[in-house]
Specification:
By secondary structure, the protein is mostly helical. Helix content is 80%, strand content 1%. It is globular and about 55 Å long.
């Protein structure tokens, strides 16, 4: 991996030279380790409440994640837009625009976090009712959700820091932030739940403290390692043109994330109607499924940065070779990990619960998801390539169509005619729709002209 040291003292990765496969692998490894810690971070909550509080608490915590993701989706989009812009500006070696993009994104986050937090707190009960959370789970779920939204700024800050670093080709620094958050979260989970018997509230409190600590440490670390950025979160600095460009790139991702979350809530509502055992099994298995998905996500995010920098440098030939490498690697890993989790899923479900009904529900989910991971791998890599080039509309439409015209209707049809265990085939049906759309537009090639900066305009 080629590292370059530019004025300002920063050390970042130049992905416009060198072997594409090696660059993507080396960039993906910290992302993958980070994904493992992120899932461990989330899984600890489920393991602790499932074993020390009970299945009701496990169902409550799991039912909240789609809601949190929904209301924070706007900032996920901004983070995505900033990664694309920073990677292309960095590929063109325009460091002034990199710094101004960072300042603008931070200002947007600090201003927008307040209304988002208030909306999350005020609407938590209504959204839980809308998703048909059972009465025996409702109070615990609401408690968890309100506390998480009180500390939402830490989660948003961590994600913005991560987007900035990945745009510079640095996937190692966000890993440090995440390891710190994970360690704090595990310790506080055990203390708050086992020692102080705080239940679901303790798990939520541990999460927001860990996220806030990781975010603030991240600011200090970034400012030391990349002094030319000099993040000052409480000193607002806004660049209208860069904000508009970030919104142009980020809003499709925000819409995609929001509508995806609503779709997940629609399926979560269907799962919730199956009762607490089915909910708990689904939420536990979803954690295992996420482990198998991690390498796909890592390759997709790596190729986004790789493509962004090479588009910024005007090196389209390297974009093509990098895409082939990412598709091949993600396919091999997806098949291998999918087979492993299929073979060991029942035993791993016992981490969350010893009740047969919960374990059976989790295994039913895994058996209907994992055999189709090859399709998911192709979908995510192709969308990652187009996002890196600045084409965020195609991934948005691919996601919306595959979700709302395929996955959600299929879930309700499968539930009605074949029973609740078979609703999970809806995922594969949606992936087929999505990959067909993304592949068509990738082959069409219009995304190659979406770069925000061209090689001929480099400073």
């Amino acid at each position: 991996m080629t590292e370059t040291k530019s004025r300002g003292g920063q050390l970042a990765t130049n992905m416009t030279v060198g072997d594409p496969k090696k660059l993507i692998i080396l960039f993906s490894i910290p992302l993958l380790i980070g994904n493992i810690f992120q899932q461990l971070y989330n899984m600890v909550d489920s393991v602790v409440v499932g074993n020390y509080v009970g299945k009701i608490a496990l169902a409550a915590v799991g039912s909240c994640f789609p809601i949190i993701y929904l209301l924070s989706s706007i900032f996920i989009g901004i983070s995505t837009g900033s990664t694309i812009m920073i990677s292309q500006f960095y590929g063109a070696q325009n460091l002034k625009e990199v710094k101004e993009t960072v300042n603008t994104v931070y200002t947007s986050m600090m201003v927008g976090a307040i209304p988002l937090t208030l909306v999350g707190i005020l609407c938590s009960g209504w959204v839980l009712q809308l998703t048909q959370v059972p009465p025996d789970t409702f109070d615990a779920a609401r408690t968890y959700l309100v506390i998480i939204f009180v500390g939402l700024i830490g989660n948003l800050g961590y994600n913005v820091n991560t987007g900035i670093m990945q745009g510079l080709g640095d996937s190692k620094t966000p890993l440090i932030f995440l390891v710190i958050a994970c360690a704090i979260n595990i310790v506080l989970d055990l203390v708050f739940v086992i020692v102080f018997h705080m239940g679901v509230a303790g798990v939520a409190l541990a999460t927001i403290i860990a996220q806030a600590a990781s975010w603030l440490f991240g600011i200090v670390y970034i400012n030391k390692k990349y002094p030319f950025l000099h993040i000052q979160p409480f000193k607002l600095s806004f660049h209208k043109e860069l904000f508009t460009q970030t919104m142009r790139l980020g809003i499709p991702s925000s819409i995609q994330s929001a509508l995806f979350s609503v779709g997940v809530l629609a399926i979560q509502s269907l799962v919730n109607s199956g009762g607490s055992d089915f909910m708990a099994g689904f939420n536990g298995a979803n954690k295992l499924d996420t482990f198998a998905f991690m390498p796909i996500d890592s390759f997709s995010r790596a190729v986004t940065t790789y493509v962004g920098q090479n588009i910024g440098a005007g090196k389209l030939d390297r974009v093509k070779s990098g895409t082939r490498a990412a598709l091949g690697m993600s396919a091999v890993v997806a098949v291998a990990l999918g087979a492993f989790v299929l073979a060991t899923g029942r035993y791993m479900m016992m981490m969350f619960s010893q009740e047969p009904a919960v374990i059976d529900a989790g295994v039913a989910y895994l058996n209907r998801i994992l055999p189709f991971y090859l399709i998911l791998a192709a979908l995510f890599v192709l969308n990652g390539v187009m996002r890196g080039a600045g084409e965020t509309l195609v991934p948005m439409f691919s996601s919306i169509i595959s979700l709302w015209l395929a996955r959600v209707p299929a879930a309700y049809i499968l539930n009605h005619f074949f029973g609740k265990e078979n609703i999970f085939y809806c995922y594969a049906i949606g992936w087929v729709f999505g990959v067909s759309i993304s592949l068509y537009f990738y082959l069409k090639g219009d995304w190659k002209n979406k770069g925000i900066t061209m090689a001929s305009q480099r400073e």
